[in-house]
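A.,

Following up on our hallway conversation. Structure tokens first:
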């Protein structure tokens, strides 16, 4: 089972404009974008990050800054919205998110029934200083990274993870709330089978993802570091090359860990506990990489995703960079421009020392107002 099957067509995609209403510090706002580089500039606290956040919500279904989506509603208001017009090879497409007491998404004005329907319409690769947690943070940050990116490539994968979470909840409920061990032993095999059946394709897809990502990420790292630094990714989880092998190994681990699971009251193995080991020059980057190296690793991963996504989806994703240049020297700024010149790029910064050599537009933000 491969949810990351390569597409043979080639589509052109870019955002024409975004409209915000009562979104963060924006009252009503319309911003047109060019097809190349869009440089969103202004001093800190003016609304640059709020603007790019609105785009990421429409591609990933969630905010990259908060787990509480209602925080995007402007103070004193009861509703917020973000809407874009997207141009693709087959025509124009509008996407909208409305946030009040819930979160609703619309495609061409029609509310979608399933969140998975949103994925694949607007596809973004997003980088901000918080993305450094992919290297510096705990396993949860790396699992979230994989699941967020793969869901953009496959709505089916998103559905799979949601079903897994529901079965995991039921197995944990049995372990935590049932004090009669005989009752647990009588029922656990049913939940083990369901959990393993869902866990195996999730793990297989994650392994495929990081395997396919390594080559373009290393190519980007070679360019950024002048061939001085080598990357490697290793998935830490159940062994196996095929879905069937992974499922059997998950079942064996669930059975072997049952006593521990009964003691602690939750499931201690599975894709919800897995991790990626990211190595630089053969060493664990979380421990041994400098801050500059960690930033380069994440940048290389994000630039590598551009070509991987284009390969899998058959269309160019949009690169969204929030406050990247502030930590890059002039040499790496130029290299970054050169690496992504064939994509639509939307980026924020207080100033831009270098301007792209290809098409670009400067968008100035001051206190939630666009100039």
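Then the amino acids I'd put at each of the 371 positions:
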């Amino acid at each position: 089972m491969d949810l990351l099957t390569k597409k043979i067509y080639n589509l052109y995609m870019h955002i024409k404009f975004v409209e915000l209403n009562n979104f963060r510090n924006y009252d009503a706002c319309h911003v047109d974008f060019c097809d190349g580089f869009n440089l969103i500039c202004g001093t800190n606290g003016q609304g640059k990050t709020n603007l790019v956040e609105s785009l990421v919500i429409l591609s990933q279904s969630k905010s990259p800054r908060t787990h509480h989506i209602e925080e995007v509603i402007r103070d004193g208001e009861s509703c917020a919205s973000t809407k874009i017009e997207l141009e693709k090879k087959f025509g124009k497409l509008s996407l909208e998110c409305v946030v009040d007491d819930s979160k609703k998404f619309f495609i061409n004005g029609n509310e979608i029934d399933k969140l998975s329907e949103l994925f694949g319409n607007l596809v973004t690769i997003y980088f901000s200083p918080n993305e450094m947690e992919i290297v510096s943070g705990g396993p949860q940050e790396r699992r979230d990274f994989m699941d967020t990116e793969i869901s953009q490539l496959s709505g089916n994968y998103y559905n799979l993870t949601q079903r897994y979470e529901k079965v995991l909840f039921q197995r944990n409920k049995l372990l935590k709330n049932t004090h009669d061990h005989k009752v647990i032993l009588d029922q656990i095999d049913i939940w083990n089978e369901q959990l393993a059946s869902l866990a195996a394709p999730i793990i297989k897809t994650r392994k495929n993802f990081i395997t396919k990502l390594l080559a373009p990420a290393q190519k980007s790292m070679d360019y950024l570091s002048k061939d001085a630094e080598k990357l490697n990714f290793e998935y830490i989880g159940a062994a196996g090359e095929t879905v069937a092998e992974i499922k059997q190994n998950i079942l064996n681990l669930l059975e072997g860990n049952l006593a521990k699971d009964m003691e602690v009251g939750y499931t201690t193995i599975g894709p919800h506990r897995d991790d990626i080991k990211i190595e630089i020059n053969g060493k664990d980057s979380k421990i041994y990489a400098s801050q500059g190296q960690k930033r380069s690793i994440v940048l290389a991963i994000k630039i590598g995703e551009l070509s991987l996504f284009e390969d899998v989806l058959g269309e160019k994703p949009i690169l969204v960079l929030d406050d990247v240049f502030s930590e890059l020297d002039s040499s790496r700024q130029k290299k970054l421009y050169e690496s992504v010149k064939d994509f639509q790029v939307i980026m924020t910064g207080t100033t831009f020392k270098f301007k792209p050599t290809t098409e670009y537009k400067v968008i100035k933000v001051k206190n939630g107002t666009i100039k």
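The chain has two domains: 1-123+316-371, 132-314. Curious whether your intuition agrees with the design.

B.
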